[in-house]
Inverse folding.
């Protein structure tokens, strides 16, 4: 059987999808963009790339997909563009129709799409113990999401706790746009701090997160990459939905300010304005909950 999947972006969702793709009964062709290719190229062999959003590129993509005559295509993008493309294909399409996309995590939604067929093998939840070598702190966010950034004093509290408990080097990851922010932040942290932001390509970042002993991250692509690489991961949430964006695996958990969100329910919309929703963040209970993976 020939199967393919459609997922163009974003990086965190591409990472969240990875355990599903590895559990398909047949190795799929990946219909994606350049960022998807860069992320998956060390895991999969067959790609059809959407070069850009132009009508010409979309038309070429449709032609290439039709030429392959796939039996089944899973649309994991589920937006207007992917639905438009699906309308012109000669394959059976499965998407998020009739799935509650507001009460489930992204991973659960992806899983539910495939469960409309019999093509999903059991998801691999086996854990391989991590070498006690370094901890990743992914502290930043894009300029569009400054609301995801914790106050410096909160990251300082976290670094003091981690340094005392584990006494491991802490690597600060991020992209080039976050370097200045992380350089300033590093002056407030305690321990052996190394800034890797802006110094790694995507596959190198995957490797760093895979080999980390522990990752602590804002709601970001790095959080999802870490979790799907089987690394104990703590996602720190405030401005965004920790139910929808929960990281993968029993070795992962989330924390949020239980005073700000005293009912334990995330905001219905993601918050771009900067608030005090991180004032009472405490990672110690999260660390305890991951004890079985941090021995």
């Amino acid at each position: 059987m020939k199967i393919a999947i459609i997922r163009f972006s974003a990086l965190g969702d591409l990472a969240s999808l990875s355990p599903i793709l590895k559990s398909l009964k047949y190795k799929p062709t990946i219909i994606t963009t350049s960022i998807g290719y860069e992320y998956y190229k060390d895991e999969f062999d067959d790609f059809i790339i959407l070069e850009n959003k132009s009508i010409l590129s979309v038309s070429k993509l449709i032609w290439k997909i039709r030429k392959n005559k796939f039996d089944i295509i899973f649309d994991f993008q589920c937006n207007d563009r992917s639905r438009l493309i699906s309308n012109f294909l000669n394959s059976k399409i499965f998407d998020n129709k009739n799935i509650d996309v507001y009460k489930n995590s992204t991973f659960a939604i992806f899983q539910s799409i495939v469960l409309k067929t019999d093509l999903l093998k059991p998801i691999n939840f086996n854990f391989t113990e991590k070498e006690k070598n370094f901890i990743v702190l992914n502290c930043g966010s894009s300029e569009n999401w400054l609301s995801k950034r914790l106050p410096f004093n909160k990251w300082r509290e976290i670094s003091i706790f981690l340094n005392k408990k584990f006494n491991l080097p802490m690597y600060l990851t991020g992209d080039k746009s976050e370097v200045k922010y992380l350089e300033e932040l590093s002056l407030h942290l305690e321990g052996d701090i190394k800034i890797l932001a802006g110094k790694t390509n995507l596959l190198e970042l995957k490797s760093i997160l895979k080999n980390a002993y522990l990752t602590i991250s804002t709601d970001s692509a790095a959080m999802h990459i870490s979790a799907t690489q089987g690394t104990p991961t703590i996602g720190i949430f405030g401005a965004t939905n920790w139910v929808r964006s929960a990281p993968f695996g029993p070795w992962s958990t989330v924390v949020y300010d239980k005073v700000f969100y005293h009912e334990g329910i995330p905001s219905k919309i993601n918050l771009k304005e900067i608030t005090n929703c991180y004032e009472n963040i405490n990672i110690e209970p999260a660390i305890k909950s991951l004890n079985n993976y941090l021995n």
